[in-house]
Every structure is written in structure tokens, then in C-alpha cells.
Design goal:
Helix content: 55-70%
Mean pLDDT: 82
Structural class: alpha+beta
Distance between the termini: 32 Å
Number of strands: 12
Order of helices and strands: HHEEEHEEHEHEHEEEHEHEHHHHH
Number of helices: 13
Shape: elongated
Number of domains: 2
Strand content: 15-25%
Low-confidence stretches: 68-79
Length: 405
């Protein structure tokens, strides 16, 4: 009963100075709102990157020709011409846990159709490519293993190619010209959007890798190998086995650097989400400064309130109130200010995150955990910064307090 009466008195005291109470809570409102908005932006960016990584497919391992350094000469991914189709066949045959493999050859060419032209990426792949990438066809069919063996002039195209070269007609069965060679379109890929490298995944023409190597680029090596393992639990072991096999096939003795680079899907995800994690922590830390400033504001106003209400405190003590009652009253006032500020700040933060998402096009994701943490932190600020003024009020001498003018 005593606590309920103390709470009513604390709320009554806050209502007597509405404007001051609102201004005092403003620091908490801004701080909590900023934290919620910043965490929402960071989580949105992280979820977008994770979705883009997932668009690679399930349990995908990427093997690139070239390494960051090889025998003293620096070389990036795709910078060494050491991988062959035979390496792909060996991985498929000899590495347990591999369920699908596609050799990959990349090129950029100007493609033409319907009197229009477009510069795009040409991918040379095997028929397993779409299964590995978990990439369904929107229309038509994928080329077959027979098309690969026969270096057939066939392809499947992304949605961007359709929009640029066939804006008002069905492209399936039509012809697209690549280096003056006609390729028949067998199918259209389902749209995938941007990749983790922020490139348009739908801006692509996929042809048999043999057709690209023999008809277009006249090359004997491949750019990379896309491997799908049977599950995430065997991916690390599959990566090690692939590395051992390629070192053996490429005759890389002990002490020599790899002439290839292997990246698992989880490793790629960690690499690209690390930046967003740092950004989220940094933005949240900066926004949290506003909460500290708001807490200092609460302490300042509560000290002023103690001074203004010294006679009131003396009268309460004279009629029987204990020091703990005075302590509880002022502590409740501080917690109420910070908690109400926290609630309003949460609403402002969620609204700001949604507004940024609509106006700036930034992905935002406000999680329940961030809302709960922001509210608890705002309440903790009230306890921390409100305790000293409340303790000062509770330790006033009743006689001195009654004499105070």
C-alpha cells in the first residue's frame, strides 16, 4: 500500500511540472530512438547480405583459379590459368560428400537481338549449375549434358537480358548473337536480384562451358569450379579434400603456395557480414551517448527538484515518513521519466527506421530483442542517475528541511 501511495505522489509531482518533465525525458527519447533506428539499419543491411549469400545456393563451395600470392607474384581470384575441366572431373569422382560440380568460365560480350544490343556477362556452365545455385527457370528448359558434349549453340538468359533485348515478346526459341555466332534461347531464369558484390545476377547469359571455351574464347583453362556438398556438416572436410586433391594434381610440393583459392558459403557470409556488424556496433555506440546525456539531464533535474521541495520533504518526515519512503519517491520519479522516455523513444525509433526504409530505400529490420534492450537500458539509466538525488533527499535532516526557505 505504501509503494502505491508513493507512486501516486511521484506521478503527481511530475504532472505539476509537465513541461520540465517532457524536456527532461527528451534526452532519453532521442537516445532510445537513435539506438533503435541505428540497430534497425544495421540488422537490415546484415539480413540483406545474408539473403544475397543464400542466393548462391545451398552448401556451395567456390574454387577459384589463382591465389592472393603465388611464388612471390601476387595474383587475385581468377588470375591464374591453372584449373582445367579435368580438375572438375577429379573432384566429382574422388572427393566424398560432393553431390554436384560445375566448371565455370566467365567472359563479357556484346550480345545482339531484335536490332538491339547489350553488354553482359557470359557464363559457361554445366547443366548442374542451376541445381547447385538453386536457381529455377521461369520459362523453358536448361541445356543438357549432350549439349555440353556437342558444344551446342544454346543458352538460357536472365531477366535483365529479356528486358533489354526482348521487351515485348517471349524470348524462348529466339536467337541471340554472341560474337557473330547465333545461340538459341532455351529458357529464362527466375529473377534473383543483386548479388553480395552488388552486381545484377539477372544480367547474364548462361551457355555450355564447352561452347564458351571452344567457340567464343578459344581457351583451355577454366575460371573457377562451383561445388555443392551434401550438407553443412561435411563442407569443411570437403574443402580440405579438394585442396589436397588440387595440390596433388597441380604438383605443388611442400612449401609451395596454392595456385587456387577455396571459399565456403559460411566463410563468404562471415566475410561480408563482418562489416555490417562493425557498422551496427559503431552506430549503436554513438547513439548510446545520447542516453548517457539524457541520464545526466535526469540527474540534474532531480537535484533541482530536491532543492525546490526541501520543505515538502521536511513536512513528510515530520509526519512520519521514513528516509526510504523519500528515497523511493524520488527514485520512482526518475525511473518513470526514463521509462516513459524509453517507450516514446522506441516508437520514434521504429517510425524513423520505417521512414528511412521508404524514403532512402535502405533495408531496415527492427528486432524484438533490440526493443527490449533499449527499454531496459533506459530504465537502468533512470535508476543509475536518479539514485544520487533520491539518496540526497532521503538523508535530509527534518528540522533543517522545515527551516529551508
Amino acid at each position: 500500500m505504501r509503494i502505491a501511495a508513493t507512486l501516486r505522489m511521484a506521478l503527481r509531482a511530475l504532472r505539476r511540472n509537465k513541461m520540465r518533465s517532457v524536456l527532461t525525458a527528451l534526452g532519453i527519447i532521442i537516445g532510445v530512438g537513435a539506438v533503435i533506428a541505428m540497430v534497425g539499419i544495421g540488422n537490415g543491411a546484415k539480413s540483406q547480405v545474408e539473403a544475397q549469400i543464400a542466393s548462391l545456393g545451398q552448401n556451395v563451395i567456390l574454387v577459384f583459379a589463382g591465389n592472393w600470392s603465388s611464388s612471390g607474384a601476387r595474383s587475385g581470384w581468377g588470375g591464374a590459368g591453372t584449373m582445367t575441366v579435368e580438375d572438375t572431373d577429379a573432384i566429382s569422382r574422388e572427393v566424398p560428400g560432393v553431390i554436384a560440380v560445375s566448371p565455370e568460365v566467365r567472359d563479357r560480350e556484346q550480345v545482339q537481338a531484335n536490332g538491339l544490343n547489350w553488354n553482359t556477362q557470359i557464363l559457361g556452365e554445366s547443366p548442374e549449375y542451376l541445381d547447385i545455385r538453386d536457381w529455377p527457370l521461369e520459362d523453358g528448359a536448361m541445356f543438357t549434358e549432350q549439349d555440353v558434349r556437342g558444344t551446342a549453340k544454346v543458352c538460357v538468359v536472365g531477366k535483365t537480358i529479356v528486358n533489354q533485348l526482348f521487351p515485348s515478346e517471349d524470348p524462348v526459341g529466339k536467337i541471340v548473337i554472341i560474337r557473330n555466332i547465333p545461340f538459341k534461347i532455351l529458357g529464362v531464369l527466375h529473377p534473383k536480384g543483386l548479388s553480395v558484390m552488388n552486381t545484377d545476377q539477372d544480367d547474364v547469359v548462361v551457355i555450355p562451358y564447352t561452347s564458351l571455351m571452344k567457340r567464343l574464347s578459344k581457351r583451355t583453362n577454366i575460371s573457377s569450379i562451383i561445388v555443392q556438398s551434401s550438407g553443412p556438416d561435411v563442407s569443411d572436410r570437403v574443402q580440405r579434400d579438394i585442396a589436397d586433391l588440387l595440390r596433388q594434381r597441380h604438383r605443388l610440393g611442400q612449401g609451395r603456395d596454392d595456385d587456387f583459392t577455396i571459399r565456403g558459403q559460411q566463410e563468404i557470409s562471415d566475410m561480408f557480414t563482418a562489416t555490417t556488424k562493425v557498422m551496427t556496433v559503431l552506430l549503436s555506440a554513438i547513439a548510446s551517448v545520447s542516453l548517457i546525456v539524457g541520464g545526466i539531464g535526469i540527474m540534474n533535474i532531480m537535484l533541482v527538484s530536491v532543492t525546490e521541495r526541501t520543505r515538502e520533504i521536511g513536512i513528510r518526515m515530520a509526519v512520519g515518513a521514513h528516509g526510504r519512503d523519500i528515497l523511493l519517491q524520488f527514485l520512482i520519479e526518475a525511473i518513470t521519466l526514463s521509462s516513459l522516455g524509453g517507450v516514446i523513444g522506441i516508437l520514434c525509433g521504429i517510425g524513423s527506421a520505417k521512414l528511412l526504409s521508404v524514403m532512402a530505400g535502405w533495408p531496415t529490420l527492427v528486432s524484438i530483442s533490440s526493443v527490449i534492450m533499449a527499454f531496459l537500458f533506459s530504465a537502468a539509466v533512470g535508476v543509475f542517475f536518479g539514485f544520487y538525488p533520491a539518496r540526497k533527499a532521503s538523508r535530509l535532516d527534518p528540522i533543517d528541511a522545515l527551516r529551508y526557505e
